[in-house]
Amino acid sequence: MPEEDLAEIKFRLYDGSDIGPFRYSPAATIAMLKERVVTEWPKDKKIAPKSANDVKLISAGKILENSKTVGQCNMPFGELPKGVITMHAVVQLSLAKAKTEKKVDKLPKKSICSCSIL
User: Fold this and answer.
1) What residue intervals traverse the membrane (predicted)?
2) Got the DSSP string for 8-19?
């Protein structure tokens, strides 16, 4: 594939740091990009995805579907000649895990009343 057909993409994390940029063919799927994000995720971050299902990629305000390809996402390649496309990588842990953690974090609440009747 010619070098000019490859898209250069970097992934912006929640704290403003970046992963990449990496070069992808227009035939690369969003699922492949998510796998790369998980493997390249910095180990020193407090929030980290466990799998590609924990990552949501956002480009141009749209959440990208796993089955779509880079070419199908209607990314503005023409507007940014030789430019790097920035996608936002958001970690959204699976609901089953989040519910389990929520139950563990629930401690008995103590009621403290500070009402005064005069």
Assistant:
1) none
2) EEEEE-TTS-EE
First to last CA, the chain: 83
63 contacts 90 by C-beta, under 8 angstroms: no
List the chain pLDDT tens, one digit each, 118 residues: 556 678 888 999 988 899 988 998 888 899 999 999 999 999 888 888 888 899 999 988 888 898 888 888 765 544 555 678 888 999 987 665 545 555 555 555 666 666 666 6
Distance, CA of 75 to CA of 61 (rounded, Å): 11
Which regions of the chain does DSSP assign to beta strands (E)? 7-12, 18-24, 55-59, 62-63, 84-91
**Coil, strand, or helix at residue 111?**
coil
